[in-house]
Structures are given as C-alpha cells and as structure tokens.
Amino acid sequence: MTKDKYCILNGHLISIYEPTVSFANRAFRYGDSLFETIRLCNNKLMFLRDHLTRLKLGMTVLRMNLPAEFTSENINEFIIQLLKHNAHAPNARIRLTVFRNDGGFYTPETNDISFLIESDELAGPYELNQKGFWVDVYADIKKSINKLSNIKSGNALMYVMAGISKQSMKLDECFLINENGTICESISSNIFVVKNGTLYTAPLSEGCVAGIMRKQVMNLATENKILTFETPITNYTLVNGDEVFLTNSINGIQWVGQFREKFYTNKMAQFFTEKLLKLTE
Question: pTM for this structure?
C-alpha cells in the first residue's frame, strides 16, 4: 500500500495525490513562477530568511502581489507542519513554489499568487563529494543578462537543455556562459575558483542566480579573513585556478576534480564544508 504524502497549497495541508492544479495554471503554461529549494539539515531549516528575501525580491521583479500572510513566521510554521506529516527529518529538501493565479494568456488577468510547499527526505547532512566532478562548458545557448537573470524562475528550459547535454557528454556538471561569452554559473550552482588562497566568483552583473549558498560562502570567507573577488570567470581563470567548487542550497559545497585537461585539489572545499556543518549545530 502506498504511503500517503502531503504538500501544502495556500496554507492547506493536502495529499499530493489530490488533483488541485488546473491545466490553466500559469506555471504550467508559461513558466510564470518562482521557486526556492530550502535545506533541512540536522533538523535545522537553513537560511530560510535569506530564501524568502530572495523570493520576495523575485516577486517584485515579476510584479506579483505579496499576500499579507506570506511572512517568514507563517512559512516556517507551514514547513514544520509538512515535515511532521511527511516524516521527513532530520534531513530534507523543501521546495517552495509561488505562481501567478490562473487567467489570461501571456498577459495575466491578475497578479495575485498561490504558493505550494513540497518536501522530500534526504539521506544525510551536507557532505563533500568524495570524487571530484568532471565538468565542461555548455555553449549551445548563452544566458541573457537582464533583470530576470538573478532570480530562480520556473522558466528553466536553458538549464534543461544543459542537463541533457551533460548527460550526453557523460559529465557530472556543465558550466554555462552568458551573452558576453564568460562563465556565469553551472546548471544548478554558483562557481568559485581558488587561486593562491583567494576566492573568485562571478558577480551578479554577469547574469548568475543570486545563490543563497554563494552568499553564505562569501560571508564565511569574510569571517575567516579569506579574500574574495567578484570578477568575470573565463576559461583562463579556470585553467589557472588551484581549486574550483560549486555551491547550492541543497548540496552545500561540491568540488570539481577536472575541467578539460586541468585537475584540481579540494582543500578549500573541505574547509568550507566543515564551516557549513558547524552552522547546522
């Protein structure tokens, strides 16, 4: 017998098998949505306030109305309720999706929103990958630089195509390039290059998503007196780096072992993983 699993739609706990989203849903039809993936790590919701700040900024960019009840406290309570009903603890992935309500074609009839919270159990806390990723560049589609570039939109066809390319090339991850021809991010992460103990990462003006884990690593670097420079990343930057690692909210830190003919170490990636785990205590 299939164990029932729940989600929360507009504050109401429902079964995931209960049909509630229509074919007219604007996230389904037009990608008219935003989402956040939030990590429960050792029974602690990580960086929830930062996630909601980014989500609300994205809603402002997309001219979505922000409901009065859409507060950090309420969302936190909904997530805790969902994790309890799904028995997803102490480690889980939570996805919070906001989408514009039904109506209209490209031009919406309303800017009011609905929100959906889902959860999935994860095996353990943040853990650095044992084997370094093999990575190359996906260059078929360049990422545009505009006011949509930094938000996490449900309109993700470029990332899907990069993921298909990654599979066909038997890679672990792909770097994406922007309209200037510089490397801005990977399919699901921000990028850091380490050279002589200094960090380099692409600035938001390069079109990368404003990553929550990117922000945490930069904060940790400042606390530990590690210099960080926001600068465009090129193939030259990668080839001349000592280390390359990727950051996202779910996996934390993942180190790159090989980019083309270049091999990397992972000392700094280990350092930040240890610091990150201390934040979960």
Answer: 0.95
